[in-house]
Amino acid sequence: MRIGVLALQGDFAAHERALRDLDAESIEVRTADDLAKSDGLILPGGESSTILKQLLEDGLADPLRIFARTKPLLGTCAGAVLMARRVTNPTQESFGFIDIEVERNAYGRQADSSIRRLAPENEFVERGGPGTVEAMFIRAPMIRAIGNDVVTLIADDGVPVFVEQGAALACTFHPELTSDRRIHQLFLEKVRKASA
Ligand code: GLN
User: Fold this and answer.
1) What is the pTM of this model?
2) pLDDT < 50: residue spans in the chain
């Protein structure tokens, strides 16, 4: 099992470290060829507009769409923006891999960056284990609406921050920047099941 990490821009190296902590094999994805070698893909945090531009320029958008039909994806922060069905502030093209609407940079200036301890939903605890999650938000998008088929795994004061729909996982904070590996673990579990 090999996990692709989209490595066009952003904090992909931190995801690779997280995967290393879990003894998972990873590959940096910059081409359709790299993607074809991956059983699941992480879309990292960074600048979603820049990553989007690169994806389009490098001809990766269509291969990514095809990949997402059958393989698990985890998008964090900018990655979650790319995966969303609708993006505002400003409006931006996105892939619609998960039925969520996000507003970019929605936490405002004072809360540009913050760390919060969040109690996960039962569904998360059952699959990932107990205990609060240290959630690091950096110019984070806010999930403004979710579709009926979207399950909230972690919420912050009623606002979903880690959600799942089928093979897709989207997280508005940065689990790759803290030492809690439950989110990556949960993703690996999905990839394992999908590729079994
Ligand atoms: N503000 C960035 C965006 O909308 C996301 C920030 C991040 O990934 N830390 O693309």
Assistant:
1) 0.97
2) none
